[in-house]
Design brief:
single chain, 172 residues, alpha+beta, Immunoglobulin-like, 6-stranded mixed beta sheet, 3-stranded antiparallel beta sheet, elongated
Length: 172
């Protein structure tokens, strides 16, 4: 007869408890990292939302044939702006994106300020921009959307709510 012996019930219980503790530690570590990451992302988004809620822009435009579009943006609140993103839309459905910060929008063109003004717009200040571009030949220009770039905790982000202005339609 073959002598078959298994492990004792005491050792089996100790092994099960040990495996349970190791698995629980792994799950807790993994769960803690997920919760921490989610909390940090939510905190960062809340800070940006609060910064963007303080933004109010007044946008005025004028179109000068063969010279481009002039845009004057007035910061109407005490929020400091780090830059601007301008989306120029035509009535034909085409749009062109300009940005004062090249890291913000892929494929956007840099917008130089008139008279060497900077884009760090302080409270209640204004900046005048000239969008001189050879491709601005469409005389059915629609409107311009201006979005503020704000900084929170050392990171820049574009506000989602635009300020809009109509571009005067020029007929030949």
């Amino acid at each position: 007869m073959i002598n078959k012996r298994g492990i004792s019930p005491l050792i089996a219980t100790v092994l099960i408890i040990g495996f349970t503790i190791v698995i629980a530690a792994i799950v807790i570590t993994f769960g803690t990292n997920i919760v921490k990451t989610a909390t940090e992302n939510t905190e960062r988004q809340a800070a940006f939302s609060m910064a963007c809620n303080g933004v109010s822009l007044d946008v005025k435009t004028s179109y000068i044939p063969n010279n481009g579009i002039n845009v004057i943006v007035q910061n109407e609140n005490a929020q400091v702006l780090e830059g601007l993103v301008i989306v120029m839309k035509s009535t034909t459905g085409q749009s062109k994106v300009y940005s004062s910060d090249s890291l913000v929008v892929n494929g956007s063109q840099q917008i130089p300020p008139i008279s060497g003004q900077t884009f760090n717009m302080g409270p209640f200040s204004a900046v005048a921009l000239s969008l001189n571009d050879d491709s601005i030949t469409d005389y059915s220009l629609g409107d311009i959307e201006v979005r503020a770039i704000v900084e929170s905790n050392g990171e820049k982000q574009v506000c989602t709510t635009p300020s809009k202005a109509k571009i005067p339609v020029i007929t030949r």
